[in-house]
């Protein structure tokens, strides 16, 4: 997926300004995507056009970026097999395997 016309988060409310970093590949729902080493996982997802990372259990409503500082649970994903990981404060590492929970029943 092309990143043309998409912006990246350059400053995080908790982590502060993000320095330029080399690009790497992460795997999201079995698809390789380009990310920047050290940026929040959610920033990489947004930069690749992924806005919904899970759906609410009761109403199947889409969830993604809400607080952006790790206080809510709207951006929970599975990272390298670890479920319930807050993607807004988890930093990208090369080769990460990320699973969203956005599948509709």
Give the overall shape: globular
**CATH fold name of the domain at 27-99:** Ubiquitin-like (UB roll)
DSSP helical segment count:
1
* Computed Rg: 13 Å
The chain-level structural class is mainly beta
Strands, total number: 9
* SSE pattern: EEEEHEEEEE
Average of pLDDT: 86
Highest CATH level, the class of the domain at 27-99? Alpha Beta
Give me the CATH architecture of the domain at 27-99, please: Roll
Euclidean distance between termini CA atoms: 25 Å
Low-confidence stretches: 1-5
Report helical residue fraction.
under 10%
Q: What is the strand content? A: 25-35%
Taking the sheet with the most strands, its summary is: 5 strands, mixed
Short key terms for the protein model shown above:
disordered N terminus, mainly beta, two-stranded antiparallel ribbon, five-stranded mixed β-sheet, Ubiquitin-like (UB roll), 105 residues, 1 helix
Give a structural overview.
The chain is mainly β and 105 residues long. The chain has a domain of 73 residues: Ubiquitin-like (UB roll). Helix content is 7%, strand content 30%.
Task: Sum this structure up briefly.
The protein is mainly beta. 7% of the residues lie in helices and 30% in strands. The protein contains one helix and nine strands, in the order ββββαβββββ.
């Amino acid at each position: 997926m092309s990143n043309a016309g998409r912006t990246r988060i350059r400053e995080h409310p908790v982590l502060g300004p993000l320095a330029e970093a080399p690009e790497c590949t992460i795997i999201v729902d079995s698809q390789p995507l380009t990310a920047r080493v050290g940026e929040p996982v959610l920033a990489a997802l947004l930069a690749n056009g992924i806005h919904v990372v899970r759906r609410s259990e009761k109403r199947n409503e889409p969830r993604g970026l809400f607080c952006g500082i790790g206080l809510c649970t709207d951006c929970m994903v599975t990272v390298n097999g670890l479920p319930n990981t807050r993607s807004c404060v988890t930093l990208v590492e090369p080769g990460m395997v990320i699973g969203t929970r956005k599948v509709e029943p």
